[in-house]
Specification:
The two termini are about 30 Å apart. About 5% of the residues lie in helices and about 35% in strands. The chain contains two helices and 28 strands. Strands 13, 16, 18, 19, 20, 21, 23, 24, 26, 27 and 28 form an eleven-stranded antiparallel sheet that branches. Strands 4, 5, 7, 9, 10 and 11 form a six-stranded antiparallel sheet that branches. Keywords: Signal. GO terms for molecular function: metalloendopeptidase activity.
Length: about 425
C-alpha cells in the first residue's frame, strides 16, 4: 500500500491543503564560494595538504538537509511500522546540482533507498507546478517525502541517518569530485506513545481515498504559514463511503451531493475531550467543483470541529454539513462516540467526504500532523494501485483486493483501505 502515488487531479485531492507543495517558495543564497562550471581558476588552486577535505572529518556538502519534524513510528494495516517524515533539501552552492539518490538507514541497515523514478515520484522542487525534477538551482530548495518502514518495534531505530548523493556540473579537485555522496546529521526518532482512538464514523464501505504514506495530496500538503513550513495532513484521511457495488455513486449523478452514500452520515468523536473550535455556517459546495484559492485560510476546512483529546493532541473533523444539528459549542465536553456533525461538502472539497486528522496544535493548518491508531475495526480489503483509485474516482467500480481482509486492532489505515467501523 505504501507504493500508491499521487495521481492526477483527485476527487478528494488537497481536501484541506492551502497550496500544498505548490506554495513552497524558492529562496536565493549569497554564494560564499564560486563552485561549478563557472568557477574561476583561483578556486581550483590546490590548497595546502593540511587543509585537505576529510582531514578533520569535514566534507563539502552542497545540499543542506534537514527534517521538517521528527518521525513518529506507527503500525499500518500492511503490518509494517511506518516512519513518515519530510526532508528539506537546499542547494547551498552557486551551481546547479542534481540529486541522484537519498538513502535512510540506521546502524548499517538501509531503511529506505530512493533513486531514479522512485526519487522523482516523491521529490518536489519549491515553486514548481510539475514536480521540478531532480535538479536544484543555486539557493533553490525541495522536499522529499520519506516513508521508512521496519518490521517490528525492536527494529525501530533511535535515529535515522541519511546519505544524499548529488552530481555537480564538474569536478573541482581536491575540494570535491563530480559525484558527491554526502552524509547528513541524523534525525532523531520520536518514540512517544501514539494516540489510540475510535473511528470518526460507523458502518461499512468506508474508503481511505487519500491518506498516508505515499505522496498523496494530503502528504504533499506542506505549506508556508506564519513564517514556517507545516505538514498538518501527514496522517490525514479523506473518507468516502462506497455503494454496495463499490462505486462513489450508483446513479452517476456526480454533481448531486445526495447521490453519494456518505452524505449526511453521522460524524462522531474519536475520544473524550472538549471542543476548542467550531464553524457551522459555511455553505455547501456543488460536487465536481472545488473553490480552492477563493477561500481564506480558515475556510479551507469548511464547517469543522476541533477537539482537544489530551496530551497536546487535537482532532480535526472537516467538511461537515452546514448547520449545527447537535447544538454544539466551544468548551462543550464530548465523550467518545458523541455525534458532532454530519458528513458534508463544505470548504475546499469537490465531493462529499470527511477529512480527519490529528495535530499538535488547535490550528488546522499551522500544525504538524500526528499519527494515530484505531483500537478496533475491520479491514474489508484494499484498493492496491493508483490506477484503480483513479478509475474509481472517474465513476467506475473500485477494484478491491480482499486477500488481507480481517479484524484489525491498534493500526492506522493506509491509502486505499476499505473498512467497516463498529456501530450502526
Amino acid at each position: 500500500m505504501t507504493g500508491i502515488r499521487a495521481g492526477n487531479a483527485s476527487v478528494f485531492a488537497a481536501a484541506v491543503a492551502v497550496a500544498g507543495l505548490l506554495a513552497l517558495s524558492a529562496c536565493s543564497a549569497s554564494p560564499a564560494l564560486t563552485i561549478g562550471a563557472d568557477a574561476p581558476p583561483s578556486v581550483s588552486e590546490t590548497p595546502p595538504a593540511a587543509a585537505a577535505p576529510g582531514a578533520t572529518g569535514e566534507q563539502f556538502t552542497p545540499v543542506v538537509v534537514s527534517a521538517l519534524a521528527e518521525p513518529i513510528p506507527v503500525l499500518g494495516t500492511d503490518e509494517r511500522i511506518h516512519l513518515a517524515y519530510e526532508l528539506q533539501l537546499t542547494n547551498g552552492s552557486p551551481s546547479k546540482v542534481k540529486v541522484t539518490a537519498v538513502e535512510a538507514g540506521a546502524s548499517g541497515t538501509v531503511l529506505q533507498e530512493l533513486e531514479g523514478d522512485d526519487l522523482d515520484d516523491v521529490m518536489r522542487v519549491a515553486g514548481t507546478t510539475d514536480g521540478g525534477g531532480l535538479e536544484l538551482g543555486p539557493g533553490q530548495n525541495a522536499t522529499v517525502w520519506m516513508d521508512a518502514t521496519v518490521a517490528s518495534d525492536a527494529d525501530v531505530p533511535d535515529r535515522i541517518e541519511h546519505t544524499v548523493t548529488v552530481e555537480m556540473p564538474k569536478a573541482q579537485p581536491p575540494l570535491y569530485e563530480k559525484t558527491i555522496e554526502q552524509t547528513t546529521q541524523a534525525v532523531r526518532v520520536d518514540k512517544r506513545d501514539v494516540a489510540v482512538i475510535g473511528p470518526p464514523l460507523t458502518g461499512d464501505n468506508w474508503l481511505d481515498a487519500n491518506g498516508c504514506c505515499g505522496l498523496t495530496a494530503h502528504r504533499g500538503a506542506v505549506s508556508p504559514i506564519n513564517g514556517t513550513y507545516w505538514a498538518p495532513e501527514r496522517w490525514a484521511i479523506d473518507y468516502v463511503k462506497l455503494t454496495p457495488t463499490m462505486k462513489l455513486s450508483d446513479d452517476g449523478a456526480r454533481d448531486n451531493a445526495r447521490s453519494y452514500p456518505g452524505y449526511g452520515q453521522n460524524v462522531i468523536a474519536v475520544a473524550d475531550g472538549p471542543i476548542v473550535a467550531i464553524t457551522t455556517d459555511r455553505p455547501e459546495q456543488e460536487p465536481g467543483t472545488a473553490p480552492g484559492p477563493t477561500l481564506t485560510l480558515d475556510e479551507y476546512g469548511g464547517n469543522y470541529v476541533v477537539q482537544d483529546i489530551g496530551g497536546g493532541t487535537y482532532a480535526f473533523y472537516a467538511h461537515l454539513k452546514t448547520g449545527n444539528p447537535f447544538d454544539l459549542q466551544v468548551g462543550q465536553q464530548l465523550t467518545r462516540g458523541d455525534r458532532l456533525g454530519l458528513l458534508g461538502n463544505t470548504g475546499n472539497t469537490d465531493a462529499p467526504h470527511l477529512h480527519f486528522h490529528l495535530m499538535d496544535s488547535p490550528n488546522p493548518l499551522a500544525s504538524n500532523g500526528l499519527p494515530f491508531m484505531f483500537d478496533t475495526f475491520t479491514l474489508d480489503g484494499q484498493v492496491t494501485s493508483q490506477a484503480a483509485l483513479d478509475a474509481g474516482e472517474q465513476g467506475k467500480a473500485y477494484k478491491v483486493d480482499k486477500a488481507d481482509a480481517g479484524e484489525r486492532s491498534g493500526q492506522v489505515p493506509l491509502t486505499g483501505d476499505l473498512m467497516t467501523y463498529p456501530g450502526e
